[in-house]
Amino acid sequence: MEIFIAQLISGLSLGSIYVLLVTGFNLMLLVAKIIQFAYPQIVVISMYTCWWALKITSNKLLIIIAGITVSVALSLLSEPIFRKISSIKDVDINATFIASMGIAMIMMDVMSHSFNYGFPVAFPPKWIGGNILSFGLITISKGQLFALVGGVIAVSVFFYLLYRTNQGRFFRAIAENRLAAELVGIPITKTSIFSYFIVGILGGFSAILFSMLIGSASPWLGEFVALKMLAVSIVAGLGNLHGGLVCGLLLGIIEAIAVGYISGSWSNVIAFVIMLAVILIKPEGLFGTKI
Amino acid sequence: MSEVLYYFLGFSAIYILMGWALYLPYRVGQLNYLIVACMAITAYFGGFAAREWNWPFPVILIIGIMISTIIGLIFSQAIGKAPCFTVVIVGLTSVFIVKTVIENWKLLGGTVGFFHIPNVNGMLIIIYGLLILVGFLIYRIDHSRWGRAASVVFVDKDVAVSLGVDIKKIGMFFQIVSCAIAGMAGTLDAFLVRSLSPEFFTFGMIGYLMCILFVGGYTTMWGVIFSAFFLQGIPLMFPSSIASWRQVIYGALLVLIILLRPEGIITRKMLWRMKPKAYFPVNTQIKNSKS
Amino acid sequence: MEKKNSILKIENLSVSYGPIKALKNIDLYINEGEFVSLIGANGAGKTTLLKAVLGINTIERGNIFFLGKDITRKPTNVIVSSGLSLIPEGHIIFSSMSVLENLQLGAYQSLATFKENLEKIFEYFPILQKRSNQIAGTLSGGEQQMLSMGRALMSKPKLILVDEPSLGLAPKIVLDIFNILIELNKEGYTILLSEQNAKKALESSSRCYVMKTGEIAMSGPSLDLMNNPQIQQAYLGGC
Ligand SMILES: Nc1ncnc2c1ncn2[C@@H]1O[C@H](COP(=O)(O)OP(=O)(O)O)[C@@H](O)[C@H]1O
Ligand SMILES: [Mg+2]
User: What pTM does this model have?
Assistant: First the structure.
C-alpha cells in the first residue's frame, strides 16, 4: 500500500508535467496552427538556465523567473519564423513540423556542444531538497512533492484560464472555428502571438518541475521528452485538450508503476509499447482528433 | 582508394537509398520514420547472421529485405491512410523501442556496439549496383499508375477519392516498398561499416534524412541524390572545428529551405523546364487549376 | 435615394479567386435605418461581396466606406469593432462551447453593456435563454441560426450583414427569422440581407440589389422590382 502511494505520488507529478507539455503543444497546434516539435528542447534549455542560475543565487524565486523568462523568450523568438512559413502559399502544417525539427536539431547541438561541455548536469540538493518520505527502496523527495503540488496547481490554473477568461475563450474560439472567430472580431495574429507567450510560460513551469522531479538535465532529454509528448498527444487525439489531460496523467502513473516492477530502461519501453499499440489500433486517438 | 573517399561514396549511396525510402511515402504526404527502425533491425540482423552463423551475404540481404517488408506490411495495415503526423509518431516510437531493445540485449553488444562483421569483397560495387537497380524501380513506380495517383493524393485527398483512388492501398504500397528499401540499406550499412552502434539509429539520423529529402527537393526522386552527396560532403569540406557543428548546419538548412524554397533545390518545375512533357502531367494540371 | 452620409458605401469593387472574377465593379450604398436586400442565384457573388466588406476576401480593386471611413483592406477585427457585423451563411457557431459562451464571444468588444445586451437578445430569441447552458452544437438548425444572429447582435453593430439566413431551414422557422429581421429593422438596426429566396427578401426589404454573375444587374425600391416583369420571370417563378 505504501509503495503504491509512493508510486502514485511520483506518477501524478510526472503526469502533470506531461499534461503541461502536451497542453502547450496542443495550444500551438490549435491556435497558432503549427506543430512545435522543438518545444521540449526549449524546456530543456530552460532547465539548463535554472541550473546556471542556481550557481549564482539560491533565491528560488529568481531562479524560477530566469527559467520562465528564457522559455518565453525562445518561444516568442520562433514565432516570426512560423508566421512566415504559414504565410507561404501552397504550404501546409507539415512545413512547420519540418522547420521545427530543424530548430530542434540546432538547439540540441548547441546544448551538446556548449552547455557544461555537453555533459549532463545534476541539480544540487538545495534545489531538490532531502527525502521526506521513504518506503524501503522508494523514497519521495521534497522536490517530487513540490513537483506534484506545483504541477497540479499549474494545470488547474491553466485550464481555469482557458475556460473562464476572455483570453482563454479566444484561444478556444480560434481553435474551433477560425472564420467565426474572425467574424466576432477576435484579433487572430495578436492572439496567436499571445499563445506563444503562454506556451513559453507553460514550458518554463514544466522545466522547473522537471528539474525538481528528476534532478538532472542532458542534451538528449529533449528528444526523449518530445517523443513522450508527441505520443501522448496522438494517443489522446491531436488537439484534444481534455484527452491530453487524461492521457498525460495516465502515462505518468503507468510509468511510475512500471518503474516499481520492471528494471531501468525497460520500464520506458513498456509505456511506449502501450502507446504504440493504442495508436496502431486507434490512429485517430482515444478521445478523437480536434483539428 | 582512400578510406575517406570509400566511406564518402558508400555512405552517400546508403543515404540515397534511405532518402528514397523517405521520399516514396511522402508522395502521398506521409513521413515514414519506420524506415530507421527497419534499417536498425536489418543491420543488426545482418551483422549477427554473418558473424555468428556465417550466413553468406546474398542470403542475408534477401532475408533482411524480407524482414523489413513484413514489418512494413504489418504496420501499413494500421497506418496505411493515417494522417502524416500519426505516421510520424508511429515511426518515432518504433525507433525508440528498437533502440532500447538493442541497448539492453547483451547478445547484440548493448550500448557498446556490435563489431567484427565479416568483410565482403567489392562492397562498394555491390552497393552502387543495387542503388541503380532501386533507382530504376522508383523511376518506374513514379511513372506508373501508382505514381500518378500518388500525385493526386498529395494535392487533395478528396479529389483522389472522387477519382476512385484507393488511398489506403496506395499508402500501404508506398510504405511497404519504403520499408523494403530501408531493409536493403540496413544490410548494406552493416557490411560497409562492419560495426554497429545503437546510437547511430536515432533522432540524429531522422533529422539527417529529413534534411536530405527536403533540402534536395521532395517533388522528384533526383533531389535526394544531389543532397545526399552534398550533405555527406559538408563535414569533409570544412575544418573539423566547423564540421563538428554539422547538426546545427543541417538544422539551419532545413529551416532556411522551408522559408526560401519550400519545394527544395531540385523541383519538378525545374526538370519540367529542362525536359518538357516528361514529368507527371497529372500533378501539374491539378496544381495549376487550384492556384 | 443615396443620402450624403450613407452608412455603407461600396465603390467600383472587384474581387477574384485566382482566375475566377467573382465580383466586377460593384457599386452599392446603404443609408442609416434601411433594410436592403441583395438577391441573386447561387454563385452570383453575394457571399463574396459580404466577405469582402468584412475584409475576409482580398480586394483587387475599389473602395469600401463605412460611416464615412475607408475600411478597404483593414483587418477583420478592426472592421468588426468599428460596428459592422456579419451573420455568415450556414449558421457558423462555436459548436463545442455553450450558448452563453458564444454570446459572450460576440460581446467582447462591448463588455460594459454585456448584461443589458444579453437581456435584449433573450427578448428577441427567448429560446436562447432556455438553452443558455446547452452546448451549441446540440441545438437544432433554426436555433443555431438564431444563436448566430444573437452573437452578431451582442456587439451592438451599426450595420448587420445577413447571409442567406433561410438556407436549409423549415418554412415555419424561415418565417420566424424574417419576422425577427423586420422587427430588428424597426428598432433601428440597419440591415443588408443576402438571399436566394427573392420573394421573401423583396417582401421584407425596402430596397433591393439584384446580382448576376458578379455584377449588379438591377437595383431599386423593392416594390418596383416586385412588379418588374423581368424579375418576376427570373426570380419569382413568373407569378
Ligand atoms: N473560395 C473560393 N475559391 C474559388 N472560387 C470561389 C470561392 N468562393 C466562391 N467562389 C466562386 O465565386 C463565385 C461567387 O460565389 P459566392 O459569392 O459564394 O456566390 P453566392 O453567395 O451568391 O452563392 C462562384 O462562381 C463561386 O464558385
Ligand atoms: Mg452564398
Answer: 0.89
